[in-house]
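Here we describe the complex-level prediction in full. Unlike the single-chain runs in Section 2.1, the two entities below were treated as one system.
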Amino acid sequence: MPASNLRHFEGTESNPALLELYRKSRAEEFGITMGEFAAILEELAAKNLQESYKQKYDFFGRLHIEDLALARACAAGNERAWQVFMLRFREKLYDAGRQITRDDATGRELADSVYADLYGTQTREGQRHSKLSSYGGRGSLGGWLRTVLAQEYINHYRKQRRLVSLDRECEEGAQFPAAVAEEITGVDKRLEQAVDEALRSLDPEDRFILASYFLDERTLAEIARSLSVHESTISRRVEKLTKNVRKQILKFLGGMGMSRREAEEALRADARDLRVDIRASLAQDSAQVAFSDREAKAGKGGR
Amino acid sequence: MDVVKKLVSGRLRAQEAGRHPDPDLLAAFAEKGLSQEARNGLLNHLAKCMECRDTLYLAMPEPDTQQVLLPSREPRLAMRWATVAVSVVILGSVLVVNRAVFSRHVTSSYSPAREKSQPKREIAELKTPPEVDQIAPASAKMADAKVLPPVNHMTAKPKASMQFDQSGEVRLGAAQSASRGDEALVTGAKLAKKDLSSVSWGLSANGDVQRSLDSGKTWQIVPVSKDASFRAISSVGDDIWVGGTAGILYHSADSGQSWQKTGPALIDEIVHIDFSDPQNGVLSTANGQVWNTSDGGQNWRLK
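The structure predicted for the assembly as a whole is:
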């Protein structure tokens, strides 16, 4: 399939900044014309709300432009681009698959399934649709591939888990459990409100650290790696955050008219009673919907 | 901590996560390629969404292919030591200047033994480095030099090492010389040979090589190659190595005044370089290959 099925963007051929990006991306090597290249960039700028000229070119300057041109050329079916892609990423895909699944055969299976999506086995409006066309160049293509593999593994794992547990229950002759009733915890609403307020007062990175450490029980080293800091930094921050959250909860409870003693008592009692609905959290809808900067900036979204 | 852990976990679980970010954004986050605003938006989502946190952690490369990160306390410690070192250098410079002025004063005012004092004056001039006279013109030249906006980064450390800062840039603190770090002069693009050891090196978020001559207050882009975007840098004295996309590796043996393309024939991005001395170094690529040299980069062996 020729690369010419890419959208064309008029009137940009004489822009020197764009020409420089075009040259740097090696897009021409993969049959992407200057107009098509400009259209890709304009599409990404629009998606990421980069409106002014300066914003746009700052944004373009930060893109992994070479990876972007390669991915889009592959998505458009350029043979030379596929050769380069295979040379650069084939082994990486298998390595990442093995690393994610911790098993050689499963890793290969996962990588093969993602590879099929990348190549585009499904057609949309008569055209083959490659997953590579959704790559936007903000992270490296290698990092994007690992993330796609991880997402695919999680989706696959969840599906398998549900099937296995149903099969096992059938084999064991177990009755299907009744629908789980809404959690009854008897948690003081004021306490919930105070915890929510305390969490809201933290910055997003602190909330991420707490969720990773408390909820997912990730190790300090894992959290540290995800934020590119040393694990002793995370250790200190967890300790500090825990103290801070407790202090904030007591403060908010105090603001709701509780005495210090009552607040301390409510905190102790409700923490004992608190039950967590693991089933509900495991049954999260795993449908993937694009998350743009619009939501990122607004700090919201809706699955 | 247990009480707070239970309360916080319960409330974090109960939060609505919203739309999932696309893999591009997650990959860019893992590679520190997002703006602060986009990063915070994503962290906000990650704090609420276990599935995306799982994806992020699964997609992280193995620890041995990542950069070694130092505790965050170290930059602060380094900053303190750097401050002390700079103070000592300034004090030393003032003493040297005063001594020189004093010597001249003594030699010119001691007229009865003028002939005898002439050798002393010569000795005093020999002991006083000529750069002392250039301090004032140098500051004027520094003001004329292109000044980049200040960035957060680590200051010079006793041994060159790589650090990530908040802006997503990489900085290398070169060995802080015991001589006059403050007297590093910019005369056009050339540097006085004896001041080279006080230069700090770094990479911008765009992958440009940067150099600072004033302990990191200002940074100047050093042109190396138009085609490359650099991801890793290492410096030992006058020898600088920079590597980046498509396995490109450049070496400068004269503190960045000239650059030669070098290294093994690589396709994958160079993500880490570390030279322990001008002869022995190691580099690793995005696909996990590790190469080392023991002859200053003339020959490379795959580990």
